[in-house]
Amino acid sequence: MKIIILGAGQVGTTLAESLVSEDNDITLVDNENDRLELLQDKHDLRVVKGAASSPQVLRESGAPDADLLVAVTSSDETNMVACQVAYTLFNIPTKIARIRSADYLREKDKLFQPDVVPIDHIISPEKLVTDEITRLIDYPGALQVAHFADGRISIVVVKAYYGGPLVGYALSALKEHMPHIDCRVVSILRQDKVIRPQGSTIVEAGDEVTFICATIHIKAVMSELQRLEKPYKRLMIIGGGNIGMGVAKRLEEQCTVKLIERNPERATALAERLGKTLVFCGDASDQSLLFEEHIENIDVFLSLTSDDEANIMSALLAKRLGAKKAMVLIQRMAYINLIQGGTIDIAVSPQQATISALLGHIRKGDVANVVTLRHGIAEALEIIVHGDENTSNVIGRRIADLKLPVGAIIGAVLRGEEVIIAKKNLLINEKDHVIVYVSDKKHIAEIEKLFQPSAFFV
């Protein structure tokens, strides 16, 4: 597939690195020459220096025969104009744009139409991150929660602790403990080593366990791996940007929310827009302010400013002063593995959320949803099966007979309205929504090929 990526920032770079290894023809466009040279030295891709929305630059980038344009520059307006130019001059079939501004998103149904601003898919990092944080608040103790099949099936990452009934026992004991609930453990991370789970695998305290189950059973399965935490009721949010405001608005009906914003004008505007959230103008590093607002009673401290270092430091301070959990927004991928799981409980990455959403539109075949797991190393795909027994490599075949690559596991299937946790004798049917967990993204191309019917995609 010929793909043009506009913008070599964190998202554009990570996306290019992810796709270039999958036998795609990638061209990356940016104004920063040093950044482009560095990427060209590291990866097998083309780079073009210039303005992303320039017709001449797009022409040089191969727009006349490109299959896909992904506009992820830091400017919404540049992304929109680039998609307009790509449609009008070059008729690029699929155009994806990152749009951040809430003003544009509010009018998206009228604006983003073929005869107005021709964008096929909109990616909004702020909404994606707000959704992710809300899911983590809904499932106390989870490190990551991803929904598939219209929310019916979920993949959850959770740390095993002493006190969980399954800790110290083999995975096969899960069925004895929960005879009426189906669940499948698809990965265990132990001391930075991935263990392929088997029935005889003993769950140890400290293991990072990834499991798949019907969404309604998430808390029941989590209770096997750790003592279930009480619902989070008292939240403190640092930063009143789009994400901070979005999280407060989403959660203020079910939780007591306090929000600290440094800018006085922004704090005033937030106080007017947020009906039940208590808004303070102040600095999150001010210990006296945190003490006055009873930081020791806060269930989750969410540091959601655009400054990674400030988020990390304020979260460390809040934990030292008694906050029970700390969740931080991290832009730089290099920081995430350094901090998560120590004093800071959860790091949320806008880049990773955006990449997941983009991959859902880029993967070959009928892929309804993609989620990157373990900070980009693993991936889960929801694939809709098409074809028949003659044209498909999977329809009418048992899961045990499928030639899945190493580290790939079919975790669950949605068949009509029924959630089926996959067993080796399960036959795959047409129109099944199959959830595949892939422990190493380098095998994605094999999965795509396996599920593509011969007469469906050329």
From TrEMBL:
Keywords tagged on the record: Ion transport, NAD, Potassium, Potassium transport, Repeat, Transport
GO molecular function, one term: potassium ion transmembrane transporter activity
Top-level taxon of the source organism: Bacteria
Ranges for domain RCK C-terminal: 143-227, 368-453
RCK N-terminal domain segment(s): 1-118, 232-348
GO cellular component, one term: plasma membrane
PANTHER family, sorted: POTASSIUM CHANNEL PROTEIN 2-RELATED-RELATED (PTHR43833), TRK SYSTEM POTASSIUM UPTAKE PROTEIN TRKA (PTHR43833:SF5)
Protein name: Trk system potassium uptake protein TrkA
